[in-house]
């Protein structure tokens, strides 16, 4: 019997947070055919941001990486809420990462690896994905990181 994403989450000692409700005029997950687009998720835990501020100023790359992990965990929570069964995920096709940072910050990839590594840890080879990571001047609620996803489902 093969290990499921839910089994892997348990083995990692991770618990899915409650999927965050949209705070404006958008949906958390949009479905078209066998693709799901998960709106950008912030590093929220229990309704509170893990950190605020900018990478290279208030937030270290290590804390930024932890924020990216938490963002991806929130992506997974949205998938669970939409699908009811994470076993329906065929592939994490793409992750988009937004890093709030000072202009001379250059460790975007290191930060976003938190989300990418967790995607593979939870979904195995199906978690290997294409990715873009972009530095931005600010994010909602002064979050340091935001992660969105494109996911293929069965």
From TrEMBL:
Q: Which SUPFAM superfamilies match?
A: YjgF-like (SSF55298)
Gene3D superfamilies reported for this sequence:
RutC-like (3.30.1330.40)
* Record-linked Pfam families: YjgF_endoribonc
Where does the record place the Endoribonuclease L-PSP/chorismate mutase-like domain? 7-145
Q: Which InterPro entries match?
A: Endoribo_LPSP/chorism_mut-like, RutC-like_sf
| Entry protein name | Translation initiation inhibitor YjgF
Q: List the source organism.
A: Asaia krungthepensis NRIC 0535
């Amino acid at each position: 019997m093969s290990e499921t994403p839910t089994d892997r989450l348990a083995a990692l000692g991770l618990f899915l947070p409650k999927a965050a409700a949209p705070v404006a005029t958008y949906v958390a997950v949009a479905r078209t055919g066998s693709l799901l687009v998960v709106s950008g998720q912030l590093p929220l835990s229990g309704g509170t941001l893990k950190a605020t501020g900018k990478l290279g100023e208030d937030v270290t790359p290590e804390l930024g990486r932890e924020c990216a992990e938490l963002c991806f965990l929130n992506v997974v929570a949205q998938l669970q809420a939409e699908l009811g069964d994470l076993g329906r995920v065929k592939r994490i096709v793409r992750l988009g990462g937004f890093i709030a940072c000072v202009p001379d910050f250059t460790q975007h990839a290191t930060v976003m690896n938190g989300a990418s590594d967790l995607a593979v840890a939870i979904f195995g080879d199906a978690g290997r994905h294409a990715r873009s990571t972009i530095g931005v001047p600010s994010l909602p609620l002064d979050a340091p990181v935001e992660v969105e996803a494109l996911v293929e489902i069965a």
